Amino acid sequence: MRQLVQSLDAPSRPAEFPPVLAGLAEAVARPRALQHVRKAPARSKDLALVAGRQLNGAAAILALAVLTDSAVEHYRGSFQNKVMYAPLAVSSLALLASIAGIADRQPKRHRARGIIYGVAGVTGLAGLGFHAYNILKRPGGLSWLNLFYSAPIGAPAALLLSGGFGRAAEKVRDTPSGKLPRIIGLPAGKILTAAAFIGLLGTVCEAALLHFRGAFQNRAMYLPVTIPPTAAILLSRCLFATGRSASHLARIALKITAALGLAGAGFHVYGVSRNMGGWRNWSQNILNGPPIPAPPSFTGLAIAGLAALSLLDMERNREGSLPRI
């Protein structure tokens, strides 16, 4: 056995041993590694459940942002089209399903939650079409003026992401013991990392558009167009970099982005208070001030990114050799 371990440690000969023998030899030399091997299936199941509940949390925050933002914006539009009630109802159901998912510690999917998330995704996709039509039908079509003051694209996109991350949560938590989570036949970590990256960039574009409309009159308005893009780039780098430093930096940036989303809601509350009459005139200033529910979308996307990184790390640990102790 000593010769076997020495041969495994030699840099020129590890390929001569089958992976199973190499793992057993290292396990004999390192008891903690043996413990990791024995608990690998259960640990894989536990990690998938934790990541699934994180994705439920991300879906909950996005659904809450859509619910409150749509309530304000569609009320301002006097609900002229009866379809404008749909996102309120669907986002409410998605929020309730997400809260139930967070509380559910059973490592299996829930059929009703999956259906609700699917409806949320379809509703968000339809909302994108409605809002795009609202922009294009105005005089001037696709112009800066219409992008500034017509129906915002970001709200239905957030509902689409809420439904998508919720469906992914149900798929991930239903992973059998000893298996890696997969979505549409591909590794879940990679799929969700790409989805969080795209979602962050889209939200940054919306924040840049609205803050440009506000002429960046407060220096803090530069934060949503600098920190989240950095987090998105670091997150996308984890798709190609295998070192721990890339994942560590991405986690730090995502946690800062999550905090920024909550702080942004506070900044918007302050922005509403600066309008004439302040909160004493709340019924008008909430409609005309900066949207309070918008910034927490960064928080939801950051949490989804953190869950994706956990799955990505799990996939690489399983695909490679035993971790170094």
From TrEMBL:
Keyword Transmembrane helix: yes
The keyword Transit peptide is annotated on this UniProt entry: no
Domain of life: Bacteria
TM spans (from-to): 47-68, 83-103, 115-136, 148-169, 190-209, 221-240, 252-272, 292-312
Name of the protein this chain belongs to: Uncharacterized protein
Entry keyword set: Membrane, Transmembrane, Transmembrane helix
